[in-house]
Amino acid sequence: MGVIHHGKTIALEILGWLMVLLGIAAIFLPGPGLLLLFGGLALLSQRYEWARRRVEPVKDAALRTAAQGVQTWPRILASLAGVVWLVGLGIVWGLRPPAPDWWPLRDSWWLLGGWGTGATLIVSGLIALATIVYSFRRFRGRSMDDVRREIAET
Fold first, then answer.
1. CA separation for the pair 150, 88 (Å, rounded)
2. Longest alpha-carbon distance in the chain
3. Model pTM score
4. Strand (E) positions, the chain?
5. Distance (Å, rounded) from C-alpha 28 to C-alpha 54?
6. Which of 35, 102, 115, 141 is 20 to 30 A away from residue 15, measured at CA?
7. Which positions ≥6 away from 92 have C-beta within 8 Å?
8. Which residues contact 114 (CB under 8 A, 6 or more apart)?
9. pLDDT, block means (10 residues), the chain with 154 residues
10. How far apart are CA 79 and CA 138, in angstroms?
11. How far is CA 128 from CA 13, 86, 152, in A?
12. Distance between CA 139 and CA 147 in Å, rounded?
């Protein structure tokens, strides 16, 4: 029993660190950065005090960002366009069309990663879509003051 518990602890810690690293990367790259960062910190907070102190501020920032993203139709439409772009890019990346004439490197360096990279882009787009739907259902039509009060209460 002790070996299984120890293995589970190690697996959760590895998953937590991986989610934190991917979350930080996804803040700058396409993907649900704050969501991944929050999930990773939540896992690590079970073991580390420094992570426990950072979970709530990241959760609050993620919820505020989600609420702000559905406050106006132009923001919603821009977010949906981003989802379509990510999924479309993932499909193109996976299909790996031939390198264009302007590509300065060897053809083998064009759209490096194939379906592995393409699938990651598609999954990021689907997670973003799920986040938009969640945010729309939870926050749409509510004032940001109400949202801030709710976040502060949770």
1. 36
2. 60
3. 0.71
4. none
5. 20
6. 115
7. 111, 118
8. 93, 94, 96
9. 78 91 80 82 92 89 85 92 94 92 90 89 88 89 80 74
10. 16
11. 25, 9, 24
12. 7
